[in-house]
Amino acid sequence: MKLENEITVEILTNKENFIKAISNNGFKLEKEFDINDIYLVKKEFENCPTYNNLLNNSILIREITEKPNAKKLITYKQKHIDDKGNILNQINADVEINNIDDAYNMLKLIGYTDLMKIRDHISVYKKDNGDELALQFVNDRIYIEIEEKCEHTGKRYESLEYMKSIITNLNLPIKNGNYYAKKAEDILSDRKEKMD
User: Fold this and answer.
1) What tens-digit pLDDT sequence spans the chain (196 residues)?
2) Region for residue 114 given its phi and psi (left: phi exceeds 0; alpha: psi -120 to 50; beta: otherwise)
């Protein structure tokens, strides 16, 4: 289980403008991979009044594919959010599994129900100074995510302000100026709008 800070912004541009902006800032492509998540929630929590409560009571079946390898996990996430909607920190716990279908069927048997599916194509970029960010195509949205500890360069950011400055220096339009976008909540909101 890990506890860490991260910032996530939804950018209002296309991949070409993003690549131009990061190239101008010295970032180079490190790797690409896909994450496919199936969110399940216990039936008694499926009508939680807020998206955060709903997601904090959900389990993910996750497949991470980086050709030619794939990793399969059951994942639990919990976000601690302040009154303004800022993510203070996030807990993340993973258990590796062998078979997604078996895990899915087991969770259904013990009372979980489908909530949503998220497809995420991720491109990780890094700079010579150790800065690292991830471009994420999540369903029909585009996000940039920066985690406190860089997975590929080993750098650890000392402050959220420095992490925000990396994105600010890209000069890309950020949806609502929000540095704490919540991807799963956005997808749930999209799904609700389509159902209404």
Assistant:
1) 555 788 999 999 988 999 999 999 999 999 999 999 999 998 888 888 777 788 888 999 999 999 888 999 999 988 777 777 677 777 889 999 999 999 999 999 999 999 999 999 999 999 999 999 999 999 889 999 999 988 888 899 989 899 999 999 999 999 999 998 888 888 888 766 666 5
2) beta
- Look at residues 7, 102, 108 and name the one whose alpha carbon lies nearest to residue 59: 108
Residue ranges of the alpha helices (H) in 51-182? 51-56, 100-109, 160-168
Residue 108: CATH number of its domain: 2.40.320.10
Whose CA is closest to 21, among 173, 182, 181?
173
Amino acid at 192: K
Reduce the DSSP state of residue 186 to 3 states and report it.
Answer: helix
The answer to whether residues 6 and 87 touch, using CB atoms and an 8 Å cutoff, is yes
Q: Which residues contact 153 (CB under 8 A, 6 or more apart)?
A: 126, 130, 131, 132
Within 8 A by CB and 6+ apart from 135, the residues are 15, 18, 22, 122, 123, 125, 142, 143, 144
Amino acid identity at 93: A
Domain membership of residue 82 as a residue range: 2-195
Instruction: Copy the structure tokens of residue 66.
Output: 């980086």
**Total structural domains within the chain:** 1
